[in-house]
Amino acid sequence: MSRTFPAAPADDIALRLRQAAARWRWWPVALLATEVVSLALMEQGLLVNAVGLSATLMIGLLDRRGAKVNVHYDPQGISPAFHEIVNAMRGLQRAQRLWFVAHEQAVTNDHQRKTNAGASQLFRRKAAHSDLVGPKTLVVDIPVPTVRVKGFRLHLFPDVVLLHGGGQILSLPYPALRVAFACTRTVENEQVPSDTRIIGSTWLYVNKNGGPDRRFKDNRELPIVEYGRLTVTGPDIDIDIVWQCSNVEALRAFFAALRGAGMRA
Q1: At a CB cut-off of 8 Å and minimum separation 6, what does 134 contact?
Q2: How many CA atoms are closer than 13 Å to the CA of 92, on its beta-carbon side?
Q3: Alpha carbons 86 and 143: distance in angstroms, whole number
Q4: Spacing of C-alpha 29 from chain mean position
Q5: Residue 87, SS3?
Q6: What is the pLDDT of residue 134?
Q7: How many CB atoms lie within 10 A of CB 9?
Q8: Inter-helix orientation angle 248-260/80-93, to 10°
Q9: What is the DSSP string of 18-63?
Q10: Regarding predicted confidence, which is higher, 78 or 15?
Q11: pLDDT score for 234
């Protein structure tokens, strides 16, 4: 049976989600018992198996229902700042591309610069997605702005920021986090999103003067584009999250909404 809690300080939401994730699941036990008994009974095993699988299915549904955490927010108690976050997330959803920057490395020598289109910074990114759906085990009566990438999710509630990754769930008040925004010049070697401004071009292999290095036959021209960059850090804890977006203005609006909700610059 699902559990219903008051809206709470959102630290409680993280605790309840952790408790729900750790909750004992009975359906594997039922499935194992069904298989053992059906094998032991031989001729009547098929009947036992059919009944046991049906029972396992029902137990699985009860397990799933019991793992749900229901949270109710009073609409009158939700601040205008959170509504701005929801609106900004809707704008971010319309962006053509959103990425999570997984790793960054400064270019430190001429060889790296010449063979990486003259870039001063190299990075590895993963495709990310934005939506208004919270954690799958949470039943909530408001939209939950969420940015997700494989293995990590950031959920925004009226009173807390929920970070979910690596099997851990952490909740923090907005003022515990810092947020920064910048427009960046990026050499794009993939297809340029339609909502991105092209501000120049370079070559895959580039000379010091910016021209193409003609020693390479497959040298091709690459666009330089303007992307938005959003960084969320935790000054007192080890959090450093970097997002990149093809739509600069959509990410800028999202940054402004986070600042309005209490994140520090």
Answers
A1: 140, 144, 146, 155, 157
A2: 31
A3: 7
A4: 33
A5: helix
A6: 85
A7: 11
A8: 160
A9: HHHHHSPP-HHHHHHHHHHHHHHHGGGHHHHHHHHHHHHHHHHHHH
A10: 78
A11: 85
Tokens of 48: 């036992």
- Give pLDDT tens digits for 237-259: 678 899 999 999 999 999 999 99
On whether the CB atoms of residues 230 and 245 are closer than 8 A, the answer is: yes
Where is mean pLDDT largest: 41-55, 169-183, 198-212? 169-183
User: What is the structure's pLDDT at 84?
Assistant: 97
- Are the CB atoms for 131 and 148 separated by under 8 Å? yes
Helix (H) or strand (E) holding 11: helix 10-22
Among the listed residues 234, 127, 116, 130, the one whose alpha carbon sits nearest the alpha carbon of residue 174: 234
The C-alpha atoms of residue 170 and residue 164 are separated, in whole angstroms, by 6
Residue located via tokens 């010449």: 114
pTM as predicted: 0.73
Nearest to 50 by CA among 67, 64, 32, 38: 38
Q: Please give the structure tokens belonging to residue 46.
A: 């098929």
What is the residue extent of each domain of the chain? Answer: 3-71, 75-260
> DSSP labels for 214-228?
TT-TT--EEEEEEEE
Give CA–CA dist 246/5, Å, rounded.
39
